[in-house]
Structures are given as structure tokens and as C-alpha cells.
Design goal:
This protein is mainly beta and 125 residues long. The chain has one domain. Helices cover 0% and strands 53% of the residues. The chain contains no helices and eleven strands. The strands form two sheets. Strands 5, 6, 7, 8, 9 and 10 form a six-stranded antiparallel β-sheet that branches. It has a five-stranded mixed β-barrel with strand order 1-2-3-11-4. The radius of gyration is 14 Å and the shape is globular.
């Protein structure tokens, strides 16, 4: 799914690292692909993917939607709502039907899990 992201920061030491904002949610992302030079403060179309294995997924009784970075890594602890169709609401919708294929018992519930990183692919506009 395509989103509009604002680039908030670029890491001078790690060229694949950026802080972007989607729906006023700021997070550090691994830039998996960009066909052009990106600039701080500019808006770009992006595709977001949760990269790596879903770790320690459980139903969350907190009923919250947020993402929390794990230290200085690209990893995140994610709290979201998993819809019946496998889409995940984390303040914006992650559409990856295969990602939650093994967890149909969590559909329609709030979930918490860890992910290795959040990838961004900057699209041609």
C-alpha cells in the first residue's frame, strides 16, 4: 500500500536509515529502495513493509496502537489491531496478508509483537 511520508531526519553515518512520518507517526525506517535522492522536509510516496520474522506475537489486553523502537536498532515492539483480513492497524494500515497468515486466531484482536525492522521503499511519483 502506498503512503505519503515526510522525511524528518537522515542519518549521516548510515545511509539506509531515516526517520519518516506517516499520519503523524514518526519512526526510524530502513530504506530498502530509493531511485532518487531524498531530502529532509520533503514528502514522498512510500511502501512500508515489516521485515523479518514476527516474534513473540500475543493478544494484547491493553488495546493500544503504537510502535516503540528497541534501543538504537531497527527493531520495534508493535502494538496494533489485526483485522479479520490480516491487515494491521498501527496508526496506518499495513497490508501484508501473508505476514499474519499463521495467526488467524488473533484476527479481530489487538496484538503485540516484535519485528526486526520496518522497511521503506521510496516509490517513483
Amino acid at each position: 500500500m502506498m503512503y505519503t511520508a515526510i522525511v524528518k531526519e537522515l542519518n549521516d553515518n548510515i545511509e539506509e536509515e531515516a526517520i519518516i512520518s506517516i499520519n503523524n507517526i514518526d519512526f526510524t525506517t530502513f530504506i530498502a529502495f530509493t531511485p532518487y535522492k531524498i531530502k529532509i522536509g520533503e514528502e514522498y510516496p512510500v511502501d512500508i513493509t515489516l521485515f523479518g520474522d514476527i516474534l513473540n506475537i500475543t493478544e494484547s489486553l491493553d488495546k493500544k496502537i503504537e510502535i516503540n523502537r528497541m534501543g538504537e536498532t531497527f527493531g520495534y515492539i508493535i502494538h496494533g489491531y489485526l483485522f479479520e483480513n490480516g491487515k494491521l492497524d498501527i496508526g496506518f494500515i499495513i497490508e501484508d496478508n501473508e505476514l499474519f497468515y499463521d495467526y488467524p486466531y488473533l484476527y479481530g484482536k489487538y496484538v503485540t509483537f516484535e519485528v526486526n525492522r520496518i522497511d521503506s521503499e521510496f516509490l517513483i511519483y
